[in-house]
Design a protein that fits this description.
By secondary structure, the chain is an alpha/beta fold. A 5-stranded mixed beta sheet has the order 2-8-7-4-5. A 3-stranded mixed beta sheet has the order 1-3-6, with no helix packed on it. Helix 1 packs antiparallel against helix 4. The longest helix has 25 residues. The C terminus is likely disordered. May act as a carbohydrate transporter. Keywords: Disulfide bond, Glycoprotein, Membrane, Signal, Transmembrane, Transmembrane helix.
């Protein structure tokens, strides 16, 4: 592997560790199928954040996943899809923007409730670190020191590779 590829790989590993997207199986154990209340499912799992993944599992040839606008969602109308996925038995969709997302099944099951509305929110800011008591001071210094050493090691490796 070339030095630049190693650096990119190290950076990606570091970035993945910092980002914490969630993966949601739409419908949980029921999957993307008729006779599931997806409004209740969404309420149970919210909030949804930018970067989260929705994974739709369905029966091949018996369902699809159509992303529509709010009008298409309310009317169960797939004639103007934003995206359409019907291949295979699963579909993974990442929530990339802060907005409302709407999905329906165009096989006629939408009228029975096979539709999903999700609001993706921006990630909240990280929580401030807990206030330390005098007895915790050593553990905080130790963890900060270990983190600094790990970060410095990463920088040394990066510079060494150039």
């Amino acid at each position: 592997m070339a030095r630049r590829e190693v650096i990119v790989l190290l950076f990606l590993i570091y970035a993945v560790a910092l980002v914490s997207a969630n993966k949601f199986t739409v419908g949980d154990e029921h999957g993307w199928n008729p006779n599931v209340n997806y409004t209740i499912w969404a309420e149970k799992h919210k909030p949804f954040y930018v970067g989260d993944w929705l994974v739709f599992y369905y029966q091949s040839g018996q369902a699809d996943v159509i992303q529509v606008d709010e009008v298409g969602y309310n009317k169960c109308d797939a004639s103007n899809p934003i995206s359409n996925y019907s291949k295979g038995r699963s579909y993974a969709f990442q929530l990339n923007h802060t907005k409302n997302y709407y999905f329906i099944c165009s096989y006629g099951y939408c009228y029975g409730g096979m539709k999903l509305a999700i609001k993706a929110q921006a990630l909240p800011p990280p929580s401030p670190p807990p206030k330390a008591h005098k007895s915790d001071a050593f553990s905080i210094v130790r963890s900060s020191f270990v983190g600094s050493i790990a970060g410095a090691f990463g920088l040394v490796v990066a510079f060494w590779l150039f």
